[in-house]
Design brief:
By secondary structure, the protein is of the alpha/beta class. The chain has helices at about 35-50, 75-80, 90-115, 130-135, 165-170, 175-185, 190-195, 205-220, 225-240, 245-255, 260-270; strands at about 10-20, 20-25, 60-65, 70, 120-125, 125-130, 140-145, 150, 190, 200-205. This is ClpP/crotonase.
């Protein structure tokens, strides 16, 4: 099992509640888990490390406390940074500084999507702004019944720029609904989020949702890590491309990845009625 001492990061708790399962908890409950710059940088470091850890096969992402998964970006902290101050009297040069900053922020959130291991987000309480960016980079999203969502960015004068506007239309099945919630910034509940595909399950409270996520992570972790890594990779690749491209990529990927002992072990375990134990990745 992985060692939690190797994952000491400010504003995050990383634990390993079951074999091959990691639990990443955003830990700034006194500020409703609102993100400042060091937090999204640490998030990237955590997920990059978990991605390559042979002792991890599935990850659960939650927020500490009862009030919020995350209330989004810490606007007060962000307003104090130099990124919002013109770096040059030349607008093009100022714009390029801001562009680099935005791309860096995007990369940190995308590290969750790039992570080789499946990631399950559990949303509860307030899930505003950056909460949508972050959970949409996860593979599976669950919510407590009292969760309140909002794509909040238009209320602070910007278009969401860290992933929601690119990923939400692919996660939800109704373009009109997506545009409505993004343009109005209205708050909506967990049942509506489930209706339109933002989350795949709603549970009575945070505890029940986290328990379900951990159970699900345990099931995923019991599978071949070669198979789960490949499944996530191919699903993400195919999501943004045509069927023919997806099929060709699958063929190229599996041409290498089916050459694993995991396939033989999995088949024999069914015939021999035994539990298979897969090697570390």
């Amino acid at each position: 099992m992985a060692n939690a001492d190797d994952f000491q990061y400010e504003f995050f708790n990383v634990t390993f509640p079951a074999e091959y399962v990691a639990h990443v908890e955003i830990n700034r409950p006194e500020k409703m888990n609102a993100f400042k710059e060091i937090m999204w940088q640490n998030l990237q470091s955590i997920f990059n490390k978990l991605s390559h850890s042979p002792d991890v096969r599935a990850i659960v992402l939650t927020g500490a406390g009862d009030r919020a998964f995350t209330a989004g970006l810490d606007v007060h902290s962000a307003s104090q940074t130099s990124h919002l101050t013109p770096s040059s009297p030349d607008p093009a040069r100022t714009a390029n500084t801001l562009r680099r900053h935005i791309l860096d922020f995007q990369s940190c959130i995308t590290s969750v999507e790039r992570c080789e291991k499946p990631v399950i987000a559990v949303l509860h309480g307030i899930a505003y702004g950056l909460a949508l960016d972050l959970c949409l980079a996860c593979d599976i999203r669950l919510a407590a019944s009292q969760t309140r969502f909002s794509v909040k960015e238009v209320d602070i004068g910007i278009a969401a720029d860290v992933g929601t506007l690119s990923r939400l239309p692919r996660a939800a099945g109704n373009a009109s609904w997506v545009k409505e919630i993004c343009l109005t910034a209205r708050v909506f509940g967990a049942s509506e989020a489930e209706k339109f595909g933002l989350v795949s399950g709603v549970y009575g409270d945070k505890s029940a949702a986290v328990q379900k996520a951990l159970e699900m992570a345990g099931v995923i972790a019991s599978k071949s890590p070669v198979a789960t890594m490949g499944t996530k990779e191919i699903l993400n690749f195919s999501r943004d491309r045509g069927v023919e491209d997806g099929l060709r990529y699958t063929a190229a990927w599996n041409a290498g990845m089916v050459q694993t002992r995991d396939v033989k072990e999995a088949m024999l375990s069914g015939v021999q009625r035994r539990k298979v134990v897969f090697e570390k990745l």
